[in-house]
């Protein structure tokens, strides 16, 4: 095991046989002081994150032992694991510099990136890559010998966390010619699993698993949305384009899908539901799924199983941000009850009030947010701050309650 920090290496190794969260991480007093000292509408550079993990040859080749995972084109969504009090990240670049199935988590209080699953061999845009010696065709699935997905996709907004089963869920759909890939391995393409490629990652065990399901099941379109909704006891998969116009619910207990959208609802669904490449979050207090796509905002009420487009601004409107899963991640701030979105293209922060149905452009005081085209962002409920990560540089902002 190669560890960037010797101290963290000892902690990682000693934690392997203990109860509790693995790996255990020490708090960073200086980082905590900066975070706790943030006033409303104030931002600060918190520091440089440490890096911890078993950095194999592939990870080292792309210098992830120096930078962490970095933002990856249409892969910028991060999901909060409440029992771990950390945020998880996975997914592939568009192709440059790599396409990897690694998994990471970030702990703000410890100011540490942890690589939970080191990448298998790199894949190319359309296939299994130059070296697919680590891939096998097993039970209808293309899988690596370590158990990871042999085909790795963008996450778009199709990443979620199931707090009941403590798993990250990923609708891993990509352009790879699966039948051709199976033939490369000497398998029978007719034995491919026909269902959606829903994968689960258990951070405590650092294990991937394909969740194969029987019919009926949804189409795994590009740019769809996966979000866990406690009131429905499952993960909602949402799609609204020519390939699929429906919301589906995945029930982990029965490992099955249920279509929530009826034929008589299609016209309203098409007009009101968010289209692909949307961003958004679930608000447990208001019991609303809130979506933003380009200049339009929509609400989904799981109790009535209905979508409503509440904002539909013109494309040149300056009163509404531009929502897109490659450029402007959006998350829920439970401490204020609002949504918060960052436009990476303009380095602008916005908040959304679902009661007033109104967007507000923010003007933080303090340190400027880091810039660059490989950033990540998330909201940290433990420390009640919005976080932007640029490699190991960590910046945090506290939204005003007003």
Can you describe what's shown?
With 402 residues, the protein is mainly beta. It is 10% helix and 36% strand. A 5-stranded mixed sheet has the order 25-1-28-27-26, covered by helices on one side. The chain has a 5-stranded mixed sheet with strand order 2-6-5-4-3. A 4-stranded antiparallel sheet has the order 9-10-11-12, with no helix packed on it. The chain contains 6 helices and 28 strands. The longest helix is centred in the N-terminal third of the chain and has 10 residues, at 6-15. It has helices spanning 6-15, 29-36, 57-61, 64-67, 178-184, 266-272; strands at 42-48, 50-53, 79-81, 86-90, 103-107, 112-117, 135-138, 141-144, 159-162, 167-171, 198-202, 207-210, 225-229, 234-241, 244-251, 256-259, 279-283, 288-293, 296-301, 306-312, 330-333, 338-343, 348-353, 358-361, 365-366, 376-380, 385-390, 393-398.
Show the helix and strand layout.
Blueprint: H1 6-15, H2 29-36, E1 42-48, E2 50-53, H3 57-61, H4 64-67, E3 79-81, E4 86-90, E5 103-107, E6 112-117, E7 135-138, E8 141-144, E9 159-162, E10 167-171, H5 178-184, E11 198-202, E12 207-210, E13 225-229, E14 234-241, E15 244-251, E16 256-259, H6 266-272, E17 279-283, E18 288-293, E19 296-301, E20 306-312, E21 330-333, E22 338-343, E23 348-353, E24 358-361, E25 365-366, E26 376-380, E27 385-390, E28 393-398
Parallel strand pairs: 1-25, 2-6
Antiparallel strand pairs: 1-28, 3-4, 4-5, 5-6, 7-8, 9-10, 10-11, 11-12, 13-14, 14-15, 15-16, 17-18, 18-19, 19-20, 21-22, 22-23, 23-24, 26-27, 27-28
């Amino acid at each position: 095991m190669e560890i960037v920090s010797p101290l963290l290496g000892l902690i990682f190794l000693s934690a392997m046989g203990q109860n509790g969260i693995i790996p255990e991480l020490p708090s960073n007093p200086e980082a905590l002081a900066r975070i706790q000292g943030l006033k409303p509408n104030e931002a600060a550079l918190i520091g440089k994150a440490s890096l911890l993990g078993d950095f194999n040859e592939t990870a080292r080749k792309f210098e992830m032992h120096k930078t962490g995972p970095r933002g990856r084109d249409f892969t910028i969504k991060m999901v909060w694991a409440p029992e771990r009090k950390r945020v998880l990240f996975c997914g592939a670049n568009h192709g440059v510099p790599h396409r990897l199935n690694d998994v990471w988590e970030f702990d703000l209080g410890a100011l540490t990136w942890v690589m939970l699953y080191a990448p298998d061999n790199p894949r190319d845009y359309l296939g299994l890559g130059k070296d697919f010696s680590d891939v096998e065709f097993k039970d209808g699935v293309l899988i690596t010998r370590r158990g990871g997905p042999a085909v790795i996709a963008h996450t778009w907004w199709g990443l979620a966390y199931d707090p009941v089963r403590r798993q990250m869920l990923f609708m891993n759909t990509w352009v790879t010619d699966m039948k051709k890939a199976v033939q490369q391995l000497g398998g029978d393409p007719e034995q491919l699993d026909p269902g959606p490629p829903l994968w689960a990652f258990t951070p405590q065990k650092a294990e991937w698993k394909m969740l194969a399901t029987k019919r009926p099941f949804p189409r795994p379109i590009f740019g769809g949305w996966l979000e866990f909704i406690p009131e429905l006891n499952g993960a909602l998969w949402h799609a609204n384009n020519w390939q699929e116009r429906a919301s589906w619910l995945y029930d982990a207990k029965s490992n099955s899908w249920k279509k929530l959208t009826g034929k008589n609802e299609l016209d309203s669904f098409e007009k009101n539901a968010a289209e692909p490449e949307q961003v958004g979050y679930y608000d447990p207090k208001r019991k609303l799924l809130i979506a933003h796509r380009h200049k339009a905002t929509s609400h989904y009420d799981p109790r009535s199983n209905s979508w409503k487009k509440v904002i539909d601004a013109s494309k040149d409107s300056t009163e509404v941000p531009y929502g897109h899963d490659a450029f402007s991640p959006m998350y829920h701030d439970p401490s204020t009850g609002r949504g918060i979105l960052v436009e990476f293209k303009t380095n602008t922060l916005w908040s959304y009030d679902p009661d007033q149905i109104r967007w507000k452009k923010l003007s933080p005081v303090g340190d400027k947010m880091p810039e660059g085209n490989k950033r990540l962002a998330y909201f940290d409920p433990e420390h009640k701050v919005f976080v932007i990560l640029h490699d190991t540089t960590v910046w945090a902002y506290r939204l005003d309650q007003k």
